[in-house]
């Protein structure tokens, strides 16, 4: 499995959760979820990264 950092731009994820130009948070309680190497990856606004293996559909 390739390192997650080799396929995800951390700066892009960080910009989703960072403050906007007027200082307000862009997302409150937000999260981003995607699939990577057969796993479900969730990144939350507080910086948590949760990785769960997805059940096979075969």
Automatic annotation (TrEMBL):
InterPro entries membership: HalOD1
Ranges of residues in domain Halobacterial output: 2-52
Protein name (Swiss-Prot/TrEMBL): HalOD1 output domain-containing protein
């Amino acid at each position: 499995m390739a390192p997650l950092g080799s396929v995800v731009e951390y700066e892009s994820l960080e910009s989703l959760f960072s403050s906007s130009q007027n200082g307000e948070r862009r997302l409150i309680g937000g999260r981003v979820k995607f699939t990577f190497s057969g796993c479900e990856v969730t990144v939350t606004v507080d910086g948590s990264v949760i990785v769960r293996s997805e059940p096979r559909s075969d």
